Amino acid sequence: MAEEQVFTIPKLPLDEWVEQSLEFVTDNFAFITKAISKLLGAGIDNVVAGLMYFNPGVLIIAFGILAWRLAGRNMGLFTILGLALLWNLRLWESTMETLTMVFFSTFISVSVGVPLGITAAFYQGFYRVIMPLLDFMQTMPAFVYLIPAIPFFGLGPVSAIFATVIFAMPPAIRLTCLGIKQVPAELIEAADAFGSTNRQKLFKLQLPLAIPTIMAGINQTIMLALSMVVIAAMIGAGGLGGEVWKAIQRLNSGMGFEAGIAIVILAMILDRITQKIAKSYEV
Amino acid sequence: MEKIKVANVTKIFGSQPSLALQLLGQGLNKEEIFNKTGQAIGLANVEFEVQAGEIMVIMGLSGSGKSTLLRCLNRLIDPTQGNIWIDGVDITTLDHDALLTLRRQKFGMVFQHFALFPHRNIRRNVEYGLEIQEVPEEQRRLKATQALKLVGLEEWEEAMPGQLSGGMQQRVGLARALAVESDILLMDEAFSALDPLIRGDMQEELIALQTRLQKTIVFITHDLDEALKLGNRVVLMKDGQVVQIGTPEDIISSPSNDYVKRFVESVDKSKILTAKAVMIPPTVVAYLNDKPTTGLLQRLKAAPLNGLLVVNQDQILQGMVRLEVLQQAIERGDSTLQSILETNIPEVKPTDSLKQMIALLAKSSLPLPVVDKQRKLQGLVTEHTVLTALAKRGDSASAKIGDSTVVKLVKKGD
């Protein structure tokens, strides 16, 4: 009541504007989003089903070997022990669901983010537009993205991936742009002096030299995607986040801790492996 | 033949170049224009040309515009005004594609801090220019290997740039520029980042390479010693303007103004000046059959010289008679110089440097005869002439400059 007495100027109907524009988009473009939803949903289901087809023991060994090849013996050992613990805690299927969602969101974020980052590095105008937009995307509380995701894609993992992509893409764009801009001007000049076209400069010089930075961006994208798909359990995304959500609803701390530790293990495996890959590209 | 011709080139850094051009036309200097308009003059009405097969050194302190000028030659920087011809083609009019072709065909460039690509091994670095031109892999591999052989690094093909020392990295830089087999080499302070010993080696190696390859080289440096050592000719720059163009000897012996003079003072002239530039004409000479007379003795003392040079009818050097020996011969009443002639005396060529002459003069105080290939007497050099040349600040009118004498320094394997 007090507020209404202070303010004589009517409230800006910002909420209504957003609602209306979202409604407009849903009404007119729902057929596209629904199609994407169907396609992506089927993709996720198939991958999870594929992963569940194998005996977890076999997969754990396979993941272990992969981790060993990519990041060394210790990481291989940690992967095997960690995943075995998750299996034992009966969290295997949730882990595979989460992993699949992280994979899909990362894939989309990177395949959109890297080209945008390259564009931003070359066109100052685009850079000026996209940077504040990225700040906006990253500071807006992650939960807010979940709300419009539902009318677009319906409840479930596809909405979760939509929200996750928005949340996790900024570092991929930012660090790609940074990596390319960091290539020393002297090297660019050398490439120019030999008569390189812009395309030759990009593929022979700028991108190869930016790879360590881009990989650092991808590592961050993966970490953000993991944190977001957990939150996205609120809109029925399932996975390990779903387990946490269940534990909250039942006020069951033990169950919450189990799911929590599973997320930590998964995060560590993904983080260390991608960091090692990023390092291996450094000159 | 003229390989590069630069005419009236001006570069202005800033947003209102036309305003600055106008003030420049009114004769204002760099500082005044900057204070008035905020436009920086990079180059102002630069003119020079480079002959094919010549090493042209552009020399100046930092901020003199030398790097800007070099980059105008392949249009890494576009001149604001003026024209540049490469092999008769005005490159200031070329469009983007033609410019790329020009850079590929005409230029190799070497950079101060090497600018090797850190993610490529040595061979792939050297191949870069050829890769850009889409030369088939086998061929470019062959050419890269050849270029690496020229700089003595064929063993290092598979190494990464980070594994090499500075000197070796710059050899790779040079090989990369040579691999494209262009006529013109642009070298931007190519040896400035190297330590003095390696730098000296690289300079000599460049001279040796140049005698084999006969490229047209535009070499930038802030080091006058380097400029004088490498350059067939030198362009001296200050504040974006050309102060003097000439052979190293021109610049040493007749600096065009006080700025150049101050510069030149610190140079070790003994390495640059040649016998031809400092020698005095042989005013007192005698023939073998001449009689030792008091007249001869007096002329010798008046010169003053403590040795008498003896030639034959064709002015071919025969030997020398010492002053005191001549005096004794007169007292004895000898009839010719024959018996008192010393034939085993040191002599120098017109191209020998002062440094070499100083070493000879230190051993005996006799005048040094300067003789050409046929041993014909050209002039002579005494302690006095050497000291005068070294002390000279370049303002004496008596400086005799060899028209096109190029200082050839000791070359490896030459």
Explain what you see.
The complex is a heterodimer of chains A (283) and B (414). Chain A contains twelve helices and no strands. Chain A is mainly alpha-helical and 283 residues long. Chain A has one domain (40-49, 92-280): MetI-like fold (Orthogonal Bundle), CATH 1.10.3720. In chain A, helix 2 (14-53) packs across helix 5. The mean pLDDT of chain A is 89. With 414 residues, chain B is an alpha/beta fold. Helices cover 39% and strands 21% of the residues of chain B. Chain B has helices at residues 17-25, 30-37, 66-73, 96-106, 122-132, 137-150, 166-179, 196-213, 224-230, 248-253, 258-265, 269-272, 275-278, 294-302, 323-332, 354-363, 383-391, and strands spanning 2-13, 40-51, 55-59, 81-86, 89-90, 107-110, 184-188, 216-221, 233-238, 241-246, 285-287, 307-311, 317-322, 368-371, 377-381. Chain B is elongated. The A-B interface holds A 184, 186-187, 189-197, 200, 204-205, 208-209, 283 and B 74, 76, 100-104, 107-109, 111, 113, 115, 117-119, 128-129, 131-133, 160, 162, 180, 186.
Topology:
The complex is a heterodimer of chains A (283) and B (414).
Chain A: H1 2-6, H2 14-53, H3 56-71, H4 73-88, H5 92-122, H6 124-139, H7 142-153, H8 157-181, H9 185-193, H10 198-231, H11 239-250, H12 253-280
Chain B: E1 2-13, H1 17-25, H2 30-37, E2 40-51, E3 55-59, H3 66-73, E4 81-86, E5 89-90, H4 96-106, E6 107-110, H5 122-132, H6 137-150, H7 166-179, E7 184-188, H8 196-213, E8 216-221, H9 224-230, E9 233-238, E10 241-246, H10 248-253, H11 258-265, H12 269-272, H13 275-278, E11 285-287, H14 294-302, E12 307-311, E13 317-322, H15 323-332, H16 354-363, E14 368-371, E15 377-381, H17 383-391
Parallel strand pairs in B: 3-8, 3-9, 6-7, 7-8, 11-12
Antiparallel strand pairs in B: 1-2, 1-4, 4-5, 9-10, 12-13, 14-15
Helix pairs in contact in B: 1-2, 5-6, 5-7, 6-7, 14-15
